[in-house]
């Protein structure tokens, strides 16, 4: 087992001052007049992380997650203990951490890269990829204090993933990005997992922890309360929350994180696309039963996925299909015209084909992207994608009731009392007599 990261007996003490003037008084009296209370945000935290694994860090507000991540990133000194890391660490910390608000986006990129040991020439080579990933246009030349939180996190994430780190630390700031960006981030995180990057992922989103992490650590009051399989750790977390009688539980957190993600109108400009160009998907819409475009759909509602495809050459038996993908890259449902027995024998060059799939959308609550493709038959000797667009549209599924899991199986429930206490006592008396 190769270790990428070791946290040894880390504790962090903060000094709490009730008023700003108390700090001044204490400084002026060189500490003779003690005006602070001591507060331990972390107490004797130790763990190791195996190289190439993804570990989730969860816990209630104020339990020390961000403090721990900052100490691992090296931006905060522990009061006791130490951290050993093997390889370049790049961190997407809480909003506000990391960038200088007065510097422009470009200046902050150079500053962050320099802190990670990159030369100016190396950073210049990274710039186009960072700009492309962040996609904040000319704002990259403006001071970051003028950025919205979404733009800030786009730039911070773009920098964090473009420097090819061996260890990536991600604080939950990702929830701020819009749906398109969240999908892009999740895809990039998965690519990095495949390349063997070690990832520490702080999140309040149980679904994200379940899908991304092979292990989860629960922090509570600055101490490790559980460490192991994500499902087991999440269930300890759920019990903790219930015990504390807080106003939310982890399912609510699921819903909060979905609600927090603002929705952008879909645009084919922003998506991943491939194909040999024999046909071109011109547009894709999600419509409700009244044929009105929608981005928010209630689970079970009838929807139509409608695309218009232009043909640049004659094509025999083109197949049109879609896949619905959740935030974690899980293909939740997909079908195509070949499977549905809808056959267009020959489509002539210059034609535009309208394709419509309609169904009742029994998905669980989440944000989904829709990939749409036109391709040759899966049975053909050399299957070819004519045009394939990932993230062609985005929908958010809502539900009036809580739904656990990926799909809504629309269960019904019945319950009835089949034995009253009196019957039970009578039965017990009979049993004793026997
Ligand atoms: N600079 C500071 N000075 C004093 N106390 C601090 C400071 N930074 C954090 N704390 C306290 O330390 C504790 C842990 O904070 P931290 O931000 O690490 O928690 P967290 O688990 O990330 O919380 P959240 O889920 O709300 O982001 C909190 O009680 C917080 O108020």
UniProtKB/TrEMBL annotation:
<dbReference type="InterPro" id="IPR015860">
    <property type="entry name" value="ABC_transpr_TagH-like"/>
</dbReference>
<keyword id="KW-0547">Nucleotide-binding</keyword>
<comment type="similarity">
    <text>Belongs to the ABC transporter superfamily.</text>
</comment>
<dbReference type="GO" id="GO:0005524">
    <property type="term" value="F:ATP binding"/>
</dbReference>
<dbReference type="GO" id="GO:0016887">
    <property type="term" value="F:ATP hydrolysis activity"/>
</dbReference>
<keyword id="KW-0067">ATP-binding</keyword>
<feature type="domain" description="ABC transporter">
    <location>
        <begin position="5"/>
        <end position="246"/>
    </location>
</feature>
<dbReference type="InterPro" id="IPR050683">
    <property type="entry name" value="Bact_Polysacc_Export_ATP-bd"/>
</dbReference>
<dbReference type="Pfam" id="PF00005">
    <property type="entry name" value="ABC_tran"/>
</dbReference>
<dbReference type="GO" id="GO:0140359">
    <property type="term" value="F:ABC-type transporter activity"/>
</dbReference>
<protein>
    <submittedName>
        <fullName>ABC-type polysaccharide/polyol phosphate transport system, ATPase component</fullName>
    </submittedName>
</protein>
<dbReference type="GO" id="GO:0016020">
    <property type="term" value="C:membrane"/>
</dbReference>
<dbReference type="InterPro" id="IPR027417">
    <property type="entry name" value="P-loop_NTPase"/>
</dbReference>
<dbReference type="InterPro" id="IPR029439">
    <property type="entry name" value="Wzt_C"/>
</dbReference>
<dbReference type="InterPro" id="IPR003439">
    <property type="entry name" value="ABC_transporter-like_ATP-bd"/>
</dbReference>
<dbReference type="InterPro" id="IPR003593">
    <property type="entry name" value="AAA+_ATPase"/>
</dbReference>
<keyword id="KW-0813">Transport</keyword>
<dbReference type="Pfam" id="PF14524">
    <property type="entry name" value="Wzt_C"/>
</dbReference>
